[in-house]
Amino acid sequence: MRFIIAENFRGQGIGSASLAKITDYVQNTLHANVFRLFVYAFNENAVSCYEKKGFKKIESYSRDDGNSVYRMEVKLTA
Predict the structure, then answer these.
(1) Cα(4)–Cα(6) distance, integer angstroms
(2) pTM for the complete prediction?
(3) Domain housing 57
(4) Cα dist. 35→8, 9, 31, 65, 66 in Å?
(5) Residue 75 β-bridge partners
(6) Domain for residue 2, yes or no?
(7) pLDDT per residue over 12-51, tens digit each?
(8) Domain membership flag for residue 20
């Protein structure tokens, strides 16, 4: 699944608020103890948003199209 905020709505906290809701769902409905996602390395705004929410870069991958992708994770509390 992709998570995209239209350009004219960026910088308004929509991404952070949406990520908080998704994280709550992953933790409290799915009962996961780790939330993992993948993000293009060039998407600095998204990487920054995820890092502010506690996600850490775990690994970097090179795609066939020449782009790099980070695997990012955050540990969730029980």
Answers:
(1) 6
(2) 0.85
(3) 34-78
(4) 28, 25, 10, 26, 26
(5) 34
(6) no
(7) 999 899 999 999 999 999 999 999 999 999 999 899 999 9
(8) no
